[in-house]
Amino acid sequence: MAFVRGRLGIEYNTTPRNDDDGFRKGPLVAATLLVAAIIVAVNFVARKVREMKEPAEDVAPAVTESPKPSAMPAETEKPKSSPKPRVTETIQRVSHNRPPKLKQLLDRLDAAEKSGDTLVAIAAIEDIRAYPGDAAADLDDRLARRLGELNMIRLWEMKDARLVSEVTVRPGDNATRIARANGTTLAAIKKLNKAENIDLVKSGTKIKVMRLPRFILVVHLRLKTADLQLNGKFFKRYDIQEATAAAESGSFEVKSVASEFLAGHGLKFDPETSKELDTLMPRSSILVISEM
User: Fold this and answer.
1) Order of all β-strands in the sheet with 250-253
2) Which of 60, 123, 125, 248 has the fewest CB atoms within 10 Å around its CB?
3) 68: helix, strand or coil
4) Considering the domain boundaries, does residue 60 fall inside one?
5) How much of the chain is in helix, strand and coil states, percent to nearest 5?
6) Which residues have CB under 8 Å from 276's CB, separation 6+?
């Protein structure tokens, strides 16, 4: 029995309903849907697993390249130290269109530098700097600075006889007196003889001194350089750190330690240069200050 909708509203239905068919069909439909859902879920999970293991078709697989060798040396390898470049290695690159004789002098300098012949290199640089006209004017500063390096080698290492002589220590002599008598400094005597306690040298011993040096330091205020001359010839070029208003042009006789005297005239050099000038320039040396 059941109530049904009729023409006059809800009516009582006397036709019996087969409820057993509904009960039998319900579980079957539910089971079918459950199996379908399980299959879909399994397929979905399987596809995700494949995607995780394999790259997608439209994405190129990553390629692992072997690392390229680095241009830098390995940490265990120490870079080879290159020798200090010679001045002519720089000069030769800008020596085109030089007069033939000047080229010959540059070649001579290059050969002397390669063979380590200091005296020939010094002579070649002096000849190049004295070359008439302006053919080598652009090289002058580099040549002057290299000449200064070679002159220091000539003095302290070679102890060239044209710059250095020997004197015999007499009874009652001391290094200060010997330095004054030979127009040099105590520091120069110590350096030439590699002896700090030079006064302990016994009488009759021969020691090396500079051969009556006559130093003139020519300061160029505008260029901020100072050229040291020895016995009328260029010896070495220095840079000036600072020139104050006290640096007035003129010629002056050095009457104290060189660095102190220069500072008193408004000229400041780096510590290494100051020490070197103190070693080279004795009292009675000449300071020339020029506005150029």
Assistant:
1) 233-239, 225-230, 215-220, 286-290, 250-253
2) 60
3) coil
4) no
5) 45, 20, 40
6) none
Burial of 129 (0-12, 13-18, 19+ CB in 10 A): middle
Q: What would the two tokens of residue 83 be?
A: 């020798």
Instruction: Report how many domains make up the chain.
Output: 3
* Token pair listed for 249: 């042009």
Q: Judge whether residue 12 has pLDDT over 60.
A: no
Residue 248 has which token pair? 């007035």
36 falls within a domain: no
Tokens of 54: 């394999």
User: Cα–Cα distance between 182 and 199 in angstroms, integer?
Assistant: 16
The identity of residue 106, as a single letter, is L
* Cβ contact 124:112 at 8 Å: yes
Same-domain check for residues 252 and 276: yes
The tens digit of pLDDT for each residue in 99-155 reads 999 999 999 999 999 999 999 999 999 999 999 999 999 999 999 999 999 999 999
Give the CA distances from residue 112 to residues 81, 126, 167, 244, in Å, rounded to whole numbers and listed in that order. Answer: 22, 13, 32, 41
Mean pLDDT, rounded, for 8-35: 52
Contact 240, 212 (CB under 8 A): no
What residues make up the domain containing 92?
Answer: 86-158
- Inter-residue contact 277 to 213 (CB < 8 Å): no
Interatomic CA distance for residues 43 and 33, integer angstroms: 15
Place 196 in a pLDDT band, splitting at 50, 70 and 90. Answer: confident
Amino acid at position 94, single letter: V
